[in-house]
Queue: 2 jobs
Job 1
Amino acid sequence: MIHDAAALTPLADSPIPLRGRPPARDDRALVELMHAAGMTPLAVASTAAWLDGEKRASPSTRASYVTDLGWWLHYLHARGLDPADVHPLEADRYAAALRAAGLADSTRARRLAAVSSWYRYLVRAGAAQRNPLLDMERPAVEDVSKTRSLSKDELDRMLAHSRQYETARTYALLCLLVVTACRVGGVVAVGVDALGYDKGNRVIDLPVKGRGGTKTKRFIIPPYASVALDAYLVERGAKPGPLFSTSTGRPIDQPYVYRLVRRIAKAAGVPQWESLSPHSVRHSIATYLLEQHPLHVVQDLLGHADPRTTRRYDRARGLLDRSPAYALGAAFAQGEAQHLKVGVDG
């Protein structure tokens, strides 16, 4: 029985800011937080090794882990706690404080997962006593992406508008986004020398997420998009450099592609155009392909390591008319009919 009334005080009551400008945005700021918290050189070295791990090889992923860990260290320092020996109760207080701060379930789940991963490594390296987040109750995250998607008809209208009213560069860029379902980061980073042929197929080697940005993936460019690309290349010329560049020769950037997608969608009469992004195209192509191809085929195209990530793109997977029960019923109905026929003939 609990006798101390203070023990029933809501754990979320925390004056510590847990949203807004991150306490750490780079390695240097993170190290400063660790020093302020009194962490040992072994803990700092272990953190550096953890950040160099395979799951954090991408610069953007590594930066996300640094930011999430920075929030935790900021919280502990404000409470005067030693990061190397935190009681699970304090981890639960932190989780409750994140919820009280109004953060989205996905954001809270990501922050907690990052901290738990860090502690697993520190315990393994002998730099922490325990993982205080072990077996913690964490936010349930929806397994369907909330990115605004497009129907095939809407994509068709955007492509038709681009072909008729936009520049050859814009039409070729949109075609490439559609036929490769690539991330916008790959399109803005690719050079003209990435184009080529492989066993008679027109291909392009695009930078993809992972391995510090040095990894590339070969994509097929089907004839439909190849025609658009060739028309643009005639206009662009054979000079080296970025495949899609500005009039001054500088590569286009991601904000430009964001604005471009929305402008074309608006001109093509696509509803809610203001909520679209280049990633909407990737989502839409994934959904479209999953209606026609096995999961593993679409997973390979998108470059997902985990098939569960690909499944999040399948907007139509909950539709009842796609249930395999129909195919199952038809198969057994056919088998039953064959046996009934044999019985009658006999």
Job 2
Amino acid sequence: MDPLIAITQPAADEAGIVSRIVQRSIRDGCALDHRNDASLVEAWTRHKGCDQVARWLLDEALCLRLAWLQGKPVGAGMALATGEVCLCYVQPESFRRGAGRALMAALEHFLGTAGHSHAMLYSTRTAAGFYARMGYRPMGRPVSFTGLVLTPMRKPLAVSAGAWHER
């Protein structure tokens, strides 16, 4: 991992940071998926506000992480103890700098140490190439959710001790 990237568990007072990263990434980085349709953007971001993120931080069945690049928060990711990665968002100006890859490594580590042999997720069209480069492969037919087309993807996990360290 790039020494300029740090992955942390957000503190309670960072819920607003996580919410802003996720909502802005959706609005500005996922136009291919929402096609600048305000009702689609609203439906996608509706349950990602500060209050919801604060609840996620209290839920022990979730792994929520914050990515920092050169000391600035640039990404957020979350996995469920059931084996699903359900969030991985990076600010558009920080795309292709390693923050998304570092977030996914942290989430996959969580899932592997929780006993999962595979990680699964539902990818948007915007993120499909990123996930494919991370080793995820489509499994099954795309599904529609709140106006978005999502492709189920899966990746085998190989957790080795010391493969990833949180700062």
